[in-house]
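re: the backbone from monday

yeah here it is again, tokenized this time
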């Protein structure tokens, strides 16, 4: 990679937080009102990222800018891109009753107007840990096929919520560490006996081991992603565009590229701690974990004044 080429961090923050009950992207979790995004930006900056792109909805854009521009000034270049229903690659008659964004795959694509080099993708409401950003940054800047994508994986057992089921991208890797497939499994939970499973369409359940590698939507991409998405999204709109809650996920595109043989994705195993907020009840746990990390010296008490 050219020394002057910037490495971008794309933050997916356009979700509406239906299960959480509000804009969890802007909720306070740290001792001085810090959001989870604040800790992500702090870790990303330390790892070497110099450019952040927030994928948001237009209706809360000013709130986002007011929150993050002052903190990032002089540290990271910040840009804000709107994931709106009509910001799509092709003309399409959008159902009048639809308000839900088109999903994470589309959210990444809207960054194409401001990203022209290697970039990482994260969720706004997930804490990934300092090691994960260093792992992904090093992957993106290392000499290799620039079209080889990467995904940071976590152990399933470390990504569950005590307050309800979760959706996870379950990864299958070959002996060389390349992703062979990724399945978006929904409603994964742990029962009273500690067994982890999720329901299948036929009414049965599938059991998963605690150490199953899962994607938490922390990816490393190059601009070719945008071209592939445009090609595949046309078919998605034709087949599912009239459904009010249909979404095109990142794993859907990656799985397509793997099976077509067009792109490989390296599974980047990381021991970093992960936690996130799916439900309102998760907030107390996340705040406690952040307090512990501050006490252990991982973060200063005040992120932007430490």
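seq for it, each position gets an aa:
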């Amino acid at each position: 990679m050219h020394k002057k080429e910037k490495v971008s961090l794309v933050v997916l923050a356009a979700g509406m937080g239906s299960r959480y009950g509000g804009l969890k992207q802007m909720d306070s979790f740290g001792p001085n009102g810090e959001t989870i995004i604040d800790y992500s930006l702090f870790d990303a900056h330390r790892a070497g990222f110099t450019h952040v792109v927030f994928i948001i909805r237009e209706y809360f854009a000013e709130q986002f800018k007011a929150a993050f521009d002052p903190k990032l000034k002089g540290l990271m270049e910040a840009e804000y891109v709107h994931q709106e229903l009509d910001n799509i690659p092709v003309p399409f008659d959008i159902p009048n009753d639809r308000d839900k964004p088109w999903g994470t795959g589309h959210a990444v694509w809207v960054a194409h107007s401001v990203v022209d080099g290697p970039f990482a993708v994260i969720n706004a409401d997930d804490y990934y840990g300092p090691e994960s950003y260093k792992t992904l940054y090093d992957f993106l800047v290392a000499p290799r096929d620039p079209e080889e994508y990467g995904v940071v994986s976590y152990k399933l057992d470390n990504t569950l919520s005590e307050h309800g089921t979760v959706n996870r991208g379950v990864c299958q890797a070959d002996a060389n560490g390349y992703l062979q497939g990724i399945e978006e499994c929904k409603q994964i939970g742990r029962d009273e006996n500690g067994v982890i499973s999720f329901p299948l369409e036929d009414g049965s359940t599938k059991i998963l081991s605690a150490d199953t590698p899962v994607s938490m939507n922390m990816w490393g991409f190059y601009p070719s992603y945008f071209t592939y998405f445009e090609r595949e999204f046309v078919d998605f709109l034709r087949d599912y565009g009239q459904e009010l809650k249909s979404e095109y996920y990142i794993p859907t595109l990656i799985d397509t590229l793997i099976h077509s043989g067009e792109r490989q994705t390296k599974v980047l195993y990381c021991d970093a701690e992960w936690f996130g907020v799916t439900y309102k009840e998760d907030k107390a746990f996340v705040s406690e974990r952040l307090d512990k990390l501050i006490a252990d010296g991982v973060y200063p008490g005040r992120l932007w004044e430490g």
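Confidence is low (pLDDT under 50) at residues 17-22. The domain at 8-305 is CATH 3.90.550.10 (Spore Coat Polysaccharide Biosynthesis Protein SpsA; Chain A).
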